[in-house]
Design a protein that fits this description.
Largest sheet: 8 strands, mixed
Helix content: 40-55%
Number of helices: 21
Structural class: alpha/beta
Shape: globular
Radius of gyration: 24 Å
Strand order of the largest sheet: 7-6-8-9-10-11-13-12
Distance between the termini: 49 Å
Number of domains: 2
């Protein structure tokens, strides 16, 4: 590649080289997701490379550009020492010869040399498009090149992880999922400083739950509820919108429900199941993965038996067993196993699955109506929202479900050793089901359990915390 061609390409991708305060910033949202601060801290404190992984269209590229802005504005980094490049560029992606030399050309173009005292920052997007990308990064990392690498791509983290094995100890992964309900509300009410101020003062509920401080949780939530009274209508509206439109920000910008469904089906289903999976594994009938995916979305939280599923969708059991790992790779499905007292033991048996985002379920099943007033449907939604949140807890070694004969608990969070936090989601109007929860607590000598409830009447009775769903989601 001639230098003039590379210079022309980089000029497009790096507008801050010529105008640090230019119009290119206008495309970035004011709202920053927490991952921006997390990666900035990583760059300050760690020598490792950073990878940003997760589903398509959740904001990985936006986060990278916001980090660049913070480096320019807060740390006064020379704009010419920040390089951004996308390996999805047609000039590179369409040429195998160019793919073999482009990385070295980027290093050569910038003039980076091992031993230089000045640090460079390389933001490399769609890195999975570059064959053996991990070997290039390893080479320059081991040479102690003064470059901090931040790489990202639209493939999901397990797909990245298959290429990261040679980078163990050299790279730290930051996994970005669709907006949580808390993030959704902060974004939706970003012009209301009162909401942001209130929520920022009540963000340690997870730690109180892990410490089993039920009375402190009650006291905290009562204060929060009183402070949020002026915003009650806005939060009620946010619950309805989030259950329908989920955490993919580009969906929110579309006004027509039909277009929302089409967007999700194209960007999050077909491209992932047919393009991303096909890039890392070959299989003859991708439609079988789609059929299995639709089945799982239609039965959230149901204990899955592969033989029964195979019979229901009309395929051999082997097809289900072969395709399940592929489907999990996509980051579209959350899979949880049955609880065992030995969480790290390899297990085979029934499992449960949930959608990583409710909008996906709504789009695939064409259920875009407001179901928040339907207690049965909202019970399914509530369970899905809770597991989405639990799987993000950094303290959680494992999230599983418990069943022993007729005794069940929706979720068991294993935090290490014999430290368990059992949670039951009870969003229907029928009598609260506490039998399974109490049985589990007695069996494992626990004095604390949680029931996520529909209403807002928080209380702590006989070691069980009755916690409103909205506050569980808002304060974690």
């Amino acid at each position: 590649m001639a230098n003039i061609n590379l210079a022309s390409l980089l000029k497009i991708y790096n507008p801050w080289w010529h105008d640090i305060k230019g119009s290119w910033r206008g495309d970035l949202p004011d709202y920053e997701r927490p991952i921006v601060n997390d990666i900035l801290n990583d760059l300050d404190e760690l020598r490792q490379m950073i990878s940003i992984t997760g589903p398509r269209r959740v904001g990985k590229t936006t986060a990278a550009r916001q980090i660049i802005c913070r480096l320019l504005d807060d740390q006064n980094v020379d704009p010419h020492r920040i390089l951004y490049f996308s390996f999805d560029d047609p000039e590179v992606f369409g040429s195998e010869d160019l793919q073999r030399i482009i990385f070295d050309h980027l290093i050569k173009y910038t003039g980076v040399r091992p031993g230089d005292k000045v640090t460079w920052y390389f933001f490399l997007d769609e890195i999975q498009r570059l064959p053996k990308w991990e070997l290039y990064l390893k080479k320059y990392y081991d040479l102690k090149s003064p470059v901090r690498f931040v790489v990202s791509g639209s493939a999901s983290s397990p797909i990245f992880r298959s290429s990261q094995e040679s980078l163990l100890g050299r790279i730290k992964d930051r996994h970005l999922l669709p907006f949580s309900f808390r993030e959704f509300c902060l974004f939706r009410l970003k012009d209301n400083p009162l909401f942001s101020y209130i929520i920022s003062n009540y963000c340690d509920l997870r730690h109180l739950l892990m410490a089993r401080k039920g009375e402190e949780v009650v006291e905290t939530i009562i204060k929060l509820d009183a402070n949020l009274t002026p915003l009650e209508k806005e939060i009620d509206s946010a619950v309805i919108s989030y259950c329908r439109e989920g955490g993919f920000p580009e969906v929110w910008q579309l006004s027509d429900p039909v277009r929302k469904i089409e967007y999700l089906m194209e960007q999050q289903v077909r491209k992932v199941l047919y393009d991303d999976l096909m890039s890392v594994t070959q299989y003859r009938k991708p439609e079988n993965v789609l059929r299995f995916f639709v089945y799982l979305l239609a039965h959230p939280g149901m204990e899955i038996n592969t033989s029964n599923v195979a019979s229901s969708i009309g395929v051999e059991r082997r097809v289900i067993e072969d395709n399940l790992p592929r489907l999990i790779m996509t980051d579209l499905i959350i899979r949880i196993e049955k609880f065992t007292h030995q969480p790290l033991r390899v297990r085979k048996g029934n499992f449960k699955c949930y959608s990583v985002d409710l909008a996906l379920r709504n789009a695939v099943l064409k259920t875009w109506d407001d179901y928040t007033s339907d207690p049965d449907m909202m019970g399914l939604y509530a369970e899905n929202l809770v597991v989405q949140e639990l799987c993000k807890w950094p303290e959680a070694i494992e999230v599983s479900f418990y069943r022993e004969k007729d005794k069940e608990v929706d979720f068991i969070v294993t935090c290490g050793g014999s430290q368990y936090l059992p949670l039951e989601v009870k969003h229907r109007k029928s009598r609260s089901r506490v039998t399974g929860l109490k049985h589990f607590m007695r069996k494992y000598g626990l004095n604390f359990g949680v029931i996520i409830i529909r209403g807002r009447n928080i209380r702590f009775e006989e070691g069980i915390l009755y916690l409103p769903l909205r506050y569980f989601l808002l304060t974690n």
